[in-house]
Amino acid sequence: MAFSQLTDSQKEDMIVSLSCLVLHGSGKPVDAEGIKAIVEATGHEVAGYWPSLMAKFLAEKDIDELLMKPGMGGGPAAGGAPAGGDGAAAAAEEEEEEEEEEDESVSGGGGGLFGDDSSS
Fold it and tell me: What pLDDT digit, counting tens, does each position of 5-59 carry?
């Protein structure tokens, strides 16, 4: 989705989030003042609560861990596991069934690749 298609709130969230990444990536403290400075330097405006809200949230977190942790929001990915939590078991069972089907189709003396097995 293009930035221009986001709602104002989504744009502000993205601007502040990217500002935090810039600060963290440059080794600077991720605080409200730094976030405000980045936002202003890029020519954007956000609601006054965003910088302090994000700074307070990140003050208690390991940003590197947040960046490396999969699935940090937004719900499950398309085609995600069902809510029961048995997604891995179901996938393994499905894979096992596929392997059995492949084994059955291969058995039979080469599957006709070398001519008719009955004519010797």
Answer: 999 999 999 999 999 999 999 999 999 999 999 999 999 999 999 999 999 999 9
The tokens for 65 are 């861990």
Quote the pTM value: 0.56
- Mean pLDDT of all residues in the chain? 76
Measured CA to CA, the distance from residue 45 to residue 36 in angstroms comes to 9
Helix residue ranges, H only, the chain: 8-25, 32-41, 49-59, 63-68, 87-106
CA–CA gap between residue 9 and residue 15 (Å, rounded): 10
Closest residue by Cα to residue 47 from 32, 58, 59: 32
**What are 70's two structure tokens?**
């999969």
Q: φ and ψ at 28, to 5 degrees?
A: -90, 155
Backbone φ/ψ region at 53: left (φ over 0), alpha (ψ -120 to 50), beta? alpha
Longest Cα–Cα distance of the chain, Å, equals 87
